[in-house]
Amino acid sequence: MEDAGLLSAFKALAENTVNYRHQMCKVYQFLTQHPDDADELSVVIDNPNIPASSVARVICENGFEISADTIKRHRKRLEHKGCKCPVKEAK
Ligand SMILES: [Zn+2]
Residue 11 C-alpha to ligand 1 middle, in angstroms? Predict the structure, then answer.
């Protein structure tokens, strides 16, 4: 049945969307790989005076692939319109 194929394709689409929405962004994944330095790394990543491309380059050079756009999206979480990573309270 063609309809059944279409329906399951649509269901798969919906499931993938849900997965995507709940997926933590790559910056978060990167930070969880460096739990001891996460706070300090996060401060640099969020520093608007440092170009996102520079941050991305340094992270890539250290063996973790990430794009400047991902950094930008992560920074925008501070304005509640970027990724879904938790926003840390300022100390
Ligand atoms: Zn993020």
Answer: 27
Q: Which region holds residue 88: left if phi is over 0, alpha if psi is between -120 and 50, else beta?
A: beta
**Cα(37) to centroid of ligand 1, in Å?**
16
CA dist 50 and 43 (Å) reads 11
Nearest to 83 by CA among 12, 3, 24, 19: 24
pLDDT digits (tens, 9 = 90+) for 14-56: 776 655 555 679 999 999 999 999 999 999 999 999 999 999 9
pTM listed for this prediction: 0.72
